[in-house]
Amino acid sequence: MRNLFVISAICGALCACDDGGVVRDDPDAGLDAGIPDVDIPPDPPVFPLKAGDIVEMNVGARTQPCNAGEGFCDRAIDASYTIESVTLNEETNRWEIEAYFNYTLKKDGTSYASISRLFWSKVAPFGELMAVEATSDGTATFYTDVPLTDEHMTANGFPFFHFESNYANTEGSAFQTASAQFTSRLRTIDAEAEIENQAAAAKFEAYFKDDLGPDVYLHKVRVEFHRFGFACAVQEQLVDWQDGMPRSQASFNNTQPPVTNSFDNVFVRRAGTRYRCSCFSGVCQTVDGTNTCLDPTDPEAEASTEACEK
Predict the structure, then answer these.
(1) Are 118 and 4 contacting, i.e. CB atoms less than 8 angstroms apart?
(2) pLDDT (tens digit, 9 = 90+) per residue, 166-185?
(3) Is the pTM of this model over 0.90?
(4) What span, in angstroms and rounded, lies between the C-alpha atoms of 50 and 52?
(5) Contact at 8 Å (CB) between 143 and 96?
(6) What angle do CA 94, 97, 101 make, to 5 degrees?
(7) Which ranges constitute the DSSP H helices of the chain?
(8) Distance between CA atoms of 131 and 105, rounded to whole angstroms?
(9) CA–CA separation, 171 and 178 (whole Å)
(10) How far apart are CA 281 and CA 251, in angstroms?
């Protein structure tokens, strides 16, 4: 058995529906009947990206130890998503993104089989693109509330995710719904899973015993979200399961797993200008030295230095 570790610094497909009450007039109820109390979730805040924006990232994995030169042990895809429309689905109360996608395999130094046990392996067509420079493209509807699990994640559930810090705590928000799905699925796999989902930290994180395949692992998944509407960091790690081992980061310390990966930042192109989106700072700032940023609260606003402080 071997250990697997995948970490992404880039930096989710199901559509969860929320039940909302409907108020109807009852002609037989009389004037004293009043209006019944109903639970209708408020509309989510505006999605921070818009038609014409292009989201760019590199996703992939590297086998370790690697005795060859840099890049020779990688399997990596350049991914881009050109947004055609952003629509609020009135039934689900979720933003949906219509986008043209393009995936290009840039490195094939490790096989798809080496990463196929990872939930992360489903976010791009790692198993379909076999030769360097092979491409896959088309147009699809991308959802903005998909948790990173083996049952929920598909290519059109990634990379978009609607996270806005205040709305995230609202019942029925994309964050709350995805958090519940994430927790439910992992507890189905391991009833003793340690799970920590925090809106304040914009993250889902879990440690659980994974016996979904022939080998049994302790599996770690951590996903962080960017306020510009996508997952901005994903860490996934597997180590051989041993009875009694803690379901925590301590079980992964001082290990040298044979598979790792690293990713560049997420970039957004708007009106010909390229912005680097940092998961740490939460801003999307120009890469040309002008030091202006996009405004996450208003996709129609001009980039400004003031937006770098929001």
Answers:
(1) yes
(2) 899 998 899 999 999 999 99
(3) no
(4) 6
(5) yes
(6) 150
(7) 174-189
(8) 7
(9) 11
(10) 29
